[in-house]
Amino acid sequence: MLTPVDPGPSVVACSSCRRPGSPASGEPRDGARLLVALERVRASDPAYQGIALQSMPCLFACGDGCTVHLRAPGKIGYVLGRFAPDDDAARAILDYALHHAASAEGQVPYALWPKGVKGHFLVRVPPAGYVAT
Q1: Whole-structure pTM over 0.85, yes or no?
Q2: Cβ–Cβ contacts within 10 Å for residue 133, how many?
Q3: Cis status, amide bond into 4, omega within 30 of 0
Q4: Which of 35, 42, 52, 85 is the Cys-Cys partner for 13 at CB 3.0 to 4.6 Å?
Q5: Cα–Cα distance between 37 and 40 in angstroms, integer?
């Protein structure tokens, strides 16, 4: 059930998400479309190459379709959702991921948050062996 992946800074995208109101039979699913947008935007700018893109079939945030988990070793992780599966959302996610990767513990000053991620945070996840204060 678990597949090893690069443990470095990454965006794990739910590939099976459907946004509320999306057709139940529509393919590709919204999450898969967001993953394609993330891959396209990542490939367009060398600055994003240090952020791995990883796909997972379900993050269990079905009510908040187009969900991603931002993580990096020893840092607070974040689950964000309710994105449109497009390049603007992908760019905002990747821009935030760059700031997250560059931060000491995963906390990014609000002034550095891209507009496209504001209002999309669902969960803050402490790294293994820690809790956030």
Answers
A1: yes
A2: 4
A3: no
A4: 35
A5: 5
